[in-house]
User: Fold this.
Amino acid sequence: TIEFVRASQLQGDEEPSGPPPPTQAQQKESIQAVRRSLPVFPFREELLAAIANHQVLIIEGETGSGKTTQIPQYLFEEGYTRKGMKIACTQPRRVAAMSVAARVAREMGVKLGNEVGYSIRFEDCTSERTVLRYMTDGMLLREFLSEPDLASYSVVMVDEAHERTLHTDILFGLIKDVARFRPELKVLVASATLDTARFSTFFDDAPVFRIPGRRFPVDIFYTKAPEADYLEACVVSVLQIHVTQPPGDILVFLTGQEEIEAACEMLQDRCRRLGSKIRELLVLPIYANLPSDIQARIFQPTPPGARKVVVATNIAETSLTIEGIIYVLDPGFCKQKSYNPRTGMESLTVTPCSKASANQRAGRAGRVAAGKCFRLYTAWAYQHELEETTVPEIQRTSLGNVVLLLKSLGIHDLMHFDFLDPPPYETLLLALEQLYALGALNHLGELTTSGRKMAELPVDPMLSKMILASEKYSCSEEILTVAAMLSVNNSIFYRPKDKVVHADNARVNFFLPGGDHLVLLNVYTQWAESGYSSQWCYENFVQFRSMRRARDVREQLEGLLERVEVGLSSCQGDYIRAITAGYFYHTARLTRSGYRTVKQQQTVFIHPNSSLFDEQPRWLLYHELVLTTKEFMRQVLEIESSWLLEVAPHYYKAKELEDPHSKKMPKKIGKTREELG
Ligand code: ADP
Ligand code: MG
Assistant:
């Protein structure tokens, strides 16, 4: 068991108490009654009046008050979509866009994709009739490419603004500009109760409309001592809550798909072993790549007598509201991107979340009744180790993509772009340099023809460059597959706990000399030959839904080839060179002391899951770096150094690519797969 101490006891505060949970009868109310019961509802008229009177309005309201699902409907009812005009509502996360669109379609009694739809990368569920468009912030950003003044929109609602994603931040600058020459456009910036003053200042002191929250007290508990293994601690705590606490569902915050799946498996496993000794516990995951039918299950009411535990990523912090949550379990971590502009290395790491995040998470327990939040860290850690707020993404990510997009929109002077918080100067500079090296910009920093094409593809500049290069090497068929498989990254292989040996053998069976890109291509090709069969996936420990998604992505990219003037072609050899033409920036060489990146001389390691882990080729390129215990290269491919000169003569000098010690290399460097676990 894990020992928790109540925060109020630590501080000598009184124990809060709240009204009882809603009765059965209340839960059975119709959808319209639920709509009327939301905190935003009493403010409907006042809100619509404020929108009519101001071009830009900042809307602040507690999570669950109805901002996302209700306000676009109010605008629709008020006639903002007359004459074919549309309303956009942006979400930082794909899952949220899909889920709220589905909810709103249900509330309006229409089929999803008709009047109400969503649009996320590689998946468009809208039609000519769609007037309420929920979309990721990245998709609205791309709308600017085809419609720079957003002329077909009457209202743009930038939702979850407090998340401060890169795309949301860029949208702020662009929308502020559009609003100046389109006085009839309404701009709404909606946010949880954070940062609203900043948004107001940015939009020339736009008024802030506050929706008073309804929130029950949440009792906060901390662990007495730090927990070494938070995943295990989570599982133990969930069961502890389940066994000792009165009814009410549990929400657990973990950092990503792998962790969530592991936790769910452990929970199910232990429940199975406890059998009828405990009441039924429904274990439901929620994360970005989860298929929508499974996602929808988290919203279904818990059957009487049972308890539901939702194991979620940050998505449940503010973007989604799940009814009936009374207990929150917060290990205090999230997955965060960070970027080092000096080395150009981007990494995704599990880091402690901010105090603001921790408080949002705790708040999720107090929506329907008084709740409890169990923090798997000490009160001391909360006070001394957590940052106040999360650093905006724009300050900790690479900007290649966004710079390319802004350049395509004709924005040349990026240093003077209207940023809410500017990115580090070095990051901007490096993005320009990289785009120049990729041939997207000329030496004056202007967009080239190839850059224009790269911007057309909704993928990272290196990936677009790879796709464009496939024309030269006549291998677009293979490259499309590689691109699609890379974009569903890390969720191809299935490794159930009770069959690890079989699963690992199945994976190794796909290995081909050369590296992981070839393995991905091999998996896809065999799957296609099986007739895209789910049975084949099952037999080969491959995740069917990841493959299905890869197929969708591939189809979408194929549909865009014509726009970027790449013909369909297939060959058997030179796609490795096309990959190199896109990824020459991400290269490493083997030195006596292990792998070093070619330009920056950073120490890096091949990921233990890679097919090249035991091979240790001298030169390789990698798709991405992930920092866990070390800086790991994920998805690596063996290359020859001479190719780098061939595909990027402006970037590499022959001298850099010489091997200073070309004699014998040690056969194997570093630890074995087993040693690394
Ligand atoms: P906000 O954007 O202010 O956080 P939302 O508009 O997302 O609030 O949610 C308002 C309410 O709508 C939630 O409290 C919840 O009761 C309900 N709701 C939202 N999405 C769903 C869903 N998919 N299924 C059931 N209820 C939902
Ligand atoms: Mg919302």
